[in-house]
Design brief:
Helix content is about 55%, strand content about 5%. It is mostly helical.
Length: about 70
Amino acid sequence: MKVKAVVVGDPEIMSGAPCFAGTRVPARTLIGYIEGGDPLDDFLEDFSTVTRKQAMAFLEGASKRMAAA
């Protein structure tokens, strides 16, 4: 799954904040959970509209971008 298919920015949804496709859940929320030491399963339980596949694709894409920097 490509990151573009996973996270979208739409000015009509959450003021254009990058959100998981098909949801109103900002991608930044997942980063906040990870930074806070919460497991991925807690995030997925709290935001059931985000799939594990979406979350993992986002994290993998972020990791690849950081490795390339």
